[in-house]
Amino acid sequence: MVASRTVVLCMTAVVSLSSLGFSSAFMAPMAGSSLLAKRQISASTSPRVASGVTQLNMKVFDWKRREALVADPSLGAVTEGEYGILGNLSPAPGSKRMKNRKGRGISAGQGATCGFGMRGQKSRSGRPARPGFEGGQIPLYRRLPKLVGKGMGRDGHQKANYGLLNLSVLNKCQPNSEVTYETCLEKGLMTKLRIKKGTSVIYSKQLVKVIGCNDENREPVKLNVAGLTVKAHAFTASAVEQIQANGGKCVLLNPVTNQDLPTE
């Protein structure tokens, strides 16, 4: 009886030892994987090298940022991070704000009615009133007087913005020659006129006005070339006087057809 008990105890000891060795061998790779996971977590949570601007709290105002920079000037220095300086830049503190989420509950600020109120025409869906509607009274576009004589479209009441042709350009021309804006461009006497505002081009023709000008000393430029026939859409009085004084001729052009207008 005693011998049988001894044999049973020996067998249980052997089984327990073998099971302990098997469990330790089985848990060894799991322990290694857990250690690797801990290292990855610690590496991911380690602080990145960021620029001085991103080291500050993003939800601060400028006066707080200025105080922090005065206390530690190194915070404002831009340093190279993992991806260089360009990959390390971030918005200035306080410049980015969260989008106002409407219709997402009262805690968002514009929850129930989205800021449109509970009643009234302006709280309904769709366009509440047409543009220019003033509640039934005479609107502004009907109270103002209309300009009579021309339409309000492209060829109506619009301010013509002329390209300027100075007398200094005419001094470079040959005597007794015909001068237009196109001929001056072909000979390289002037650069192309680029006007972005107003009506400057009609039917792909640039509106040109001949004017007088001043030199570097702010003295009026005098025309020295005689016998010029200048064609343009408009002339100033000083330009006409100098051209005609030198035996020249001023010819007005039709702004639409670009043809010579008959002289009276």
Question: Which features does this protein show?
Answer:
single chain, 264 residues, alpha/beta, three-stranded parallel sheet, 9% strand, flat
Counting H and I runs of at least 4 residues, what is the number of helices? 6
Helix/strand-derived category reads alpha/beta
Mean pLDDT: 74
Percent range of helical residues: 25-40%
Q: What value does the Rg take, in angstroms?
A: 43 Å
- The gross shape turns out to be flat
Describe the structure.
The chain has 264 residues and is of the alpha/beta class. The protein is 30% helix and 9% strand. It has 6 helices and 8 strands; from the N terminus they run αααβαβαβββββαβ. It has helices spanning 2-45, 62-71, 140-143, 167-170, 181-187, 237-245, and strands at 163-166, 178-179, 201-202, 205-206, 208-211, 229-232, 234-235, 249-252. The chain has a 3-stranded parallel sheet. The protein has a 3-stranded parallel sheet with strand order 2-6-8. A two-stranded antiparallel ribbon has the order 3-4. The longest helix has 44 residues, at 2-45. Mean pLDDT is 74; it is low at 17-33 and 43-59.
Give a short overview.
With 264 residues, the protein is an alpha/beta fold.
Detail the topology: elements first, then pairings.
Blueprint: H1 2-45, H2 62-71, H3 140-143, E1 163-166, H4 167-170, E2 178-179, H5 181-187, E3 201-202, E4 205-206, E5 208-211, E6 229-232, E7 234-235, H6 237-245, E8 249-252
Parallel strand pairs: 1-5, 2-6, 5-7, 6-8
Antiparallel strand pairs: 3-4
